[in-house]
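Continuing the series of single-chain predictions for the mutant panel. This is the parent chain; the variants come on the following pages.
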Amino acid sequence: QVQLVESGGGLVQTGGSLRLSCAASGIIFSGANMGWYRLTPGNQRELVATLTRGGSTNYAASVKGRFTISRENARNTVYLQMNSLKPEDTAVYYCRADLPLQVGYWGQGTQVTVSS
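Parent structure:
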């Protein structure tokens, strides 16, 4: 059974930082392309950042330079370091795993709220 469990969300002031974690089980984590997405209060789903199994990264323009995605294969965990947070970063953040020839898997989400 595949499980992705996010943690690290919370309430932070503008300019603050948070680090999200996503612990995976039931998959060959080192073979997975991992990503972070968010669902805004306006119900817009946005790609935040992706990190391939080969180490290539991709970021949304709105977070580039502020957020960093990384992974620790030994812990089956992907991280999202979020710095210089803005109120518009407020969203539910979801972790996603994509493996070859399989459907993608989603975590349950973690709420991030940035107060102005």
